[in-house]
Amino acid sequence: MFQKGLKGVVAVHTKVGLVDGDNGILRYRGVDVKELVLDYSFEEVAYFLLYNNLPSENELQLFTNKLIKGRTLPEYVQTIIDTLPSTASIMDAMRTAISAFGTTGFLEKDTMEQAIHLTGALPVIIARHYRNQQELPIIEQNSDFSHTENYLWMLQGTSPSLAQVEALETYLKLTMEHGLNASTFAARVTISTESDLPAALTSAIGTMKGPLHGGAPAEVLNLLEEIKEESRIRVVIEEKLKKGEKVMGFGHRIYKTEDPRSILLREACVRLQGSDPWLDLATMAEKEITSLLEKYKPGRNLYTNVEFYAAAIMRSIDMPSVLFTPTFSMARMVGWSAHVIEQVEDASIFRPQSLYVGDISEK
Length: 363
Ligand code: ACO
What we know:
Layout: E1 17-20, E2 25-28, E3 31-32, H1 33-39, H2 42-51, H3 57-70, H4 75-83, H5 90-101, H6 111-133, H7 147-156, H8 162-174, H9 182-191, H10 197-208, H11 217-227, H12 233-242, H13 260-271, H14 277-296, H15 306-316, H16 324-346
Antiparallel strand pairs: 1-2, 2-3
The protein binds acetyl coenzyme *A.
């Protein structure tokens, strides 16, 4: 049987996440993501995805300390990042630095310990290469700051506001895990050969880099920039639809109802309303665009996808678009790791077949 792109093929059994596109449900370890996002921190949700239970106070403290320890990069990893050309994309720097962890005694730790350490390290890798590219001094991590707060601190060199931290953290928690997407699949294929975690994460980052997977929010930003103000929503969107163009941030291959992540990001935007004109524009634009899509594309059920409000949130916290995919990856690091750990337990190699369709000739 041949199925192009493995579309619709069930390739693994998983207890990590459930993506129910028909009913618009996303569950981490059986729990509705909404419940987790509203009630728990990044650190708690990450712990839950990795260990399959919520941490006690002591466990959370221990886990947080391990993440903080990961923020201190080994000197040789710092040197590798610092010697990369500034033209290297941040995704390239992440892939190279994470790969470099696999060249040392780091691999002697058990896989879970490696996963926690690298989750702590990735935001530091991102910030280091970003600031090198901008020719800005490196900012030291601050152990008093949470994972999310420290990321913004190391990027910007100023203490972020509570609203900024909350907005970004909502996004990070919502994008930690999303079933057998291309990068998660790549990570599972790599570890299925009994390779190691840095190798699997290197595969995942390399896969995430492609614009068909991790690159969409920047396009939504362009749309919001083109709209600029409420009075221009209709004219900009109608022009696109009349030309047969797609409206960025709307529609989804799997979700045929509202993307649950989009609903939660919208709620985060509403909570923050008044704090940033971009969030206000996004919430106003959504209503009008949805009704225009229903008029021009009746019955297609086109709703906002996660990228629409992600872009608005990123813009409201002054996150440059070069950091969108790296930031997405920093969240997905947890999901990749949880899948790798599950795949190790499964212990069967992925080895599908190919069908030869070339010529057969005698030499
Ligand atoms: N704007 C206008 N029309 C749309 C849109 C849109 N955003 N999305 C779908 N349609 C229309 C199509 O033109 C098509 O119309 P038709 O029946 O007249 O031909 C119909 O709805 C079905 O569209 P498909 O492209 O077949 O839907 P599919 O489920 O295959 O595509 C996709 C999903 C690729 C996400 C699409 O909705 C799209 O291109 N959206 C805009 C880009 C975007 O926001 N991408 C981010 C996705 S989220 C993520 O990657 C994490």
